[in-house]
Amino acid sequence: MTTPALAARSVVVRFGGLTAVDGVDLDVDDRTVVGIIGPNGAGKTTFFNALSGLVTPASGRLFVGGADLTGKPAHVFARAGIARTFQTPRVFADMTVAESVRFGLEFAGRRRRAERASLAEVPAILDFLGLADSAALPARAVTPARQRLLEIGMALATRPRILLLDEVAAGLTHAEVEKVARLVHRCRDELGLGVVWIEHAVAVLLDAVERVLVLHQGRKLAEGIPSAVARDPLVIEAYLGDGAAEARP
Amino acid sequence: MARRGLAAVAGGAAVAAALPWLLDDFLVSLALSCLMYVALATSWAMFSGATRYVSLGTSAFFGLGAYVSAWTVAAAPWPVVIAGGALIAAAFAGLAGLAILHLRGTYFAVLTFGMSELTRHAVTYGEKQYAGTVGRVLTVAPSSRTVYLTVLAIAVAAVGVAVVVRGSRFGLALIGIGADEQRAQTLGVPTRRVKVAGFALSAAFAGAAGAAMAVRWTYIDPTAVFNPFIGLQTVLIAIVGGPLSLTGPLLAALVFSLLAEFLRLQFPYAYLIALGILLIVAVLYLPQGLAGLWQTRARAERPTAAR
After folding, report:
1. Sheet containing A219-224: which strands, arranged edge to edge?
2. pLDDT, tens digit, for every residue of A173-229?
3. B184 in contact with A at a CB cutoff of 8 Å?
């Protein structure tokens, strides 16, 4: 039994009187893709904020590669190999695409991680994402779809072990979503990353991941392989509803 | 480009160094005021321009430097006095930064302003309590040429450090913090440390400038050296010049000191009105300052050279 790359133990996040994340566990290994679904307000993004060190859990522990990072600031998580994207792309508007990617390499990605097949050069990352032809454009000038790719590129530039994707496919066309799913698989297969993927488009997500975690009102409602979770009456009741029944006949 | 800029700075510094031997006292004191604002605005822009943490605290650092100078100038060698002013101001900025650099925008600006006032009152109280005086007469002072050359050296150092920071990872971190602080942190920037270090580094130049300028005035009191106007004018110069550029604040400092001196003598009220209008125009129409004008033109002329 090896230590998981990322482990969350009974993570609780509170905002004032509201418990946004309530005792959630999660293990992510290298070379796996885990999906997180749940209705709006289920605590998905807040859980990501805890996993990336942006909020400190009220209780519970976070381990990265076996090391306890609970309560450490976000840059420590980044250096330990946790990379993330944001729901609304937060690219550096005034930097070029290439400069934005270089940023990650200059900070969290600076330390060599020779044991992992990470991309260590700006052109390699841009090629991997198919962004090479946008390299010299200011980040604010590229299309929203490309900004989402750039977000992933900035995250990959930290040479991570775990990639947290927060609704990277939201608002994209069906063809673009398929491309993102392929990209996620390449992150797993070619770079050996563990990927945690939050997505609203449940159908796409269930097809793309090996394991899925369902959050509801901050709690873990179900976890397992997609086909089993999709049939779970609790899940259907709480979240999937009619729309999902159509999506997964 | 960088080499040409360096040559321009070196040339400008050489010319400025010769001025005390060429011009009369009035013009030299004008040049001195120019150099002081070059140092203040350049070092301000290095931190506040890049990170967008707008600080009105320059007066606090300047005043502290001035008082360090007043306390030590009779006893310590001149370079030690200047270094002392820089160090005390930097240390104070570091401590203050730890307390207030988690606040952004207006809150940070207002708090730095409050910090200046607090420092002024603390020094006033301390002087009354322990020295039995508020103002201080500086009887032992280096020659005015020494003061001039010192302020010139501080201005050159401020520009030099700003150039080095710009090309460094530290400078990139400051820019990242200005663009999106949380994003920068998730990419591995130790934001708190970088902010405190940048704030302290920037304050060191204001402290050094205050230490040098204090002896020039021969009599100092808290109202004069902690004058909020010093901080406001620094911000104004940097913003009108272009907070993200290097040459903008530098040139704006030259133009403004000359303008200020001229208008202040001729039309003291019109001067403040003109400053106010300029600031409003700059903020509304020239977010990148005057530097934005020539940068836009340079880019339009060379569309292929998109960095």
Report:
1. A82-84, A162-166, A194-198, A33-37, A211-216, A219-224
2. 888 888 999 999 999 999 999 999 998 778 889 989 999 999 999 999 999 999 999
3. yes
Q: Domain tally for chain A?
A: 1
Q: What is the CATH number of the domain that holds A52?
A: 3.40.50.300
Distance CA A80, CA A69 (A): 9
- Tokens 């401020």 belong to which residue? B158
- Listed by start position, the domains of chain B span 2-227
CB A35 within 8 A of CB A212: yes
pLDDT digits (tens, 9 = 90+) for A83-96: 999 999 899 989 99
| Contacting residues of A for B192, CB less than 8 Å apart | 73
B102 in reach of chain A (CB within 8 A)? no
Which residues 103-142 of A have a C-beta within 8 angstroms of B?
A: 103-104, 106-110, 136-138
- Which of A52, A95, A136 lies nearest to residue B186, judging by beta carbons? A52
Q: Rounded distance, CA B231 to CA B32, Å? A: 17
User: Could you list the residue range(s) of the whole structural domain that residue A183 is in?
Assistant: 6-247
In this complex, the residue of A54, A96, A158 whose CB is nearest that of residue B187 is A158
Where do the DSSP E strands lie in chain B? Answer: 136-137, 219-220
Tokens 């704006």, residue located: B252
Does this complex have an ipTM over 0.85?
yes
- With CB atoms and an 8 Å threshold, state whether A54 touches B176: no
Distances (CA, A) of B8 to B4, B13, B247: 6, 8, 10
Pick from B42, B92, B77, B129: which is nearest to B226 by CA?
B92
